[in-house]
Amino acid sequence: MKHVRKVVPYSLMVAVAAGIYLFFQVFGEISAGGMSYFQIMLSIKAFLGLWLGFRGINQKLFGIQPWVFKSHLFPFILVTLIILLSQFMYL
Predict the structure, then answer these.
(1) pLDDT digits (tens, 9 = 90+) for 8-22
(2) For residue 46, how many other CB atoms are within 10 A of its CB?
(3) How far apart are CA 1 and CA 56, in angstroms?
(4) Average pLDDT score, the chain
(5) Predicted structure pTM score
(6) pLDDT band (50, 70, 90) for residue 74
(7) 52: domain range?
(8) How far is the C-alpha of 90 from the C-alpha of 41, rounded, in Å?
(9) Number of structural domains, the chain?
(10) Which of 44, 50, 64, 65 has its CA 20 to 30 A from that of 34?
(11) Could you tell me the maximum CA-CA distance found in the chain, to the nearest angstrom?
(12) How far apart are CA 62 and CA 91, in angstroms?
């Protein structure tokens, strides 16, 4: 378990960086009629993912504990929401 605690935060940071890169590759142009359903879902997922990444970087690299939502339940719920949004993106 101690090896997992050392590796997982850094791999999550790589995942957030890859997500930021892929967001710019997949998002596309916003048409005159506004954002598409896919773009709206992708934007929500990106916001939640960036929040999780920001929280993780603050905890691991700077030792800053979150001011609110100190338990692991809220990040778990956000990850679950991101997975559910992924399922609804292609409807």
Answers:
(1) 677 777 888 888 888
(2) 17
(3) 18
(4) 80
(5) 0.73
(6) confident
(7) 2-88
(8) 10
(9) 1
(10) 50
(11) 52
(12) 40
What is the dihedral sign for C-alpha 10, 1, 48, 90? Answer: positive
34 beta partners: 31
Rg of the chain over all Cα atoms, to the nearest angstrom: 15
Nearest-angstrom CA–CA distance, 15 and 73: 20
DSSP-derived secondary structure for 14-49: HHHHHHHHHHHHHS-PPBTTB--HHHHHHHHHHHHH
DSSP 64: P
For the segment 54-65, what is each residue's pLDDT rounded down to a tens digit? Answer: 877 877 788 777
What is the average per-residue pLDDT within 53-81? 78
Nearest to 88, CA basis, from 42, 46, 24, 49: 42
Tokens 């990040």, residue located: 75
Residues 90, 45: contact at Cβ < 8 Å?
no
Dig out the tokens for 29 from the structure. Answer: 């142009």
Within 10 A of 65 (CB to CB), how many other CB atoms are there? 9
